[in-house]
Specification:
mainly alpha, about 180 residues
Length: about 180
């Protein structure tokens, strides 16, 4: 006997598949050789600006003092990991001595990525399985039931790992752009 899927599960499954696709794409970009042409440089800059804006918006949300402290420690750890990872990044230079491609350190980038994904799943799975994403009120969206700040302010560990990931990505991207111009890190 098969159990029919409820129609309310399809948006959750679709959103979950989209998130999985985005995470796989992000992982592929962090472990393979990356081009440093105009498009690659624009991608690094755009990603850093977007992540910086998300971080600022997250910092505006109300947090406890413990969460802010965990976020500051996470940002310092992320910046330190980015600095360490930059020293293990290989650059391929062209005929004009400018960097044309870079190969990020697979282990450091993957470890930061894995920490972020594991903690994200740790926070999301109970919401999905516990029915918190179920809409039984009949409304398509009830803004009174949704609080965006609870995702990062609910746990200092989640906020710390979020800031590790964001600080790592921002610092690493700007470090790659700086080293690609020929400056040393």
């Amino acid at each position: 006997m098969t159990v029919p899927l409820r129609p309310s599960i399809w948006p959750v499954l679709g959103g979950g598949l989209l998130i999985v696709w985005m995470l796989i794409r992000r992982l592929r970009l962090s472990v393979g050789a990356q081009s440093l042409d105009a498009r690659g440089r624009r991608r690094l800059t755009t990603r850093s600006v977007i992540l910086g804006a998300v971080l600022l918006l997250t910092l505006i949300a109300p947090h406890t003092l413990t969460s802010y402290g965990a976020g500051a420690v996470g940002a310092l750890i992320g910046a330190g990991l980015a600095y360490w990872s930059l020293h293990h990044t290989r650059f391929e230079r062209g005929a004009t001595a400018t960097a044309v491609r870079y190969l990020p350190n697979v282990w450091i980038g993957s470890a930061v990525f894995a920490l972020f994904v594991v903690r994200l799943l740790w926070r999301m799975v109970p919401m999905v399985l516990g029915g918190q994403l179920d809409n039984t009120s009949g409304n398509s969206f009830d803004p009174g039931q949704f609080n965006a700040s609870t995702f990062t302010s609910g746990s200092p560990l989640t906020f710390a790992l979020f800031t590790v990931f964001v600080a790592y990505q921002i610092m690493y991207s700007f470090g790659v752009l700086r080293r690609a111009r020929g400056a040393t890190v």
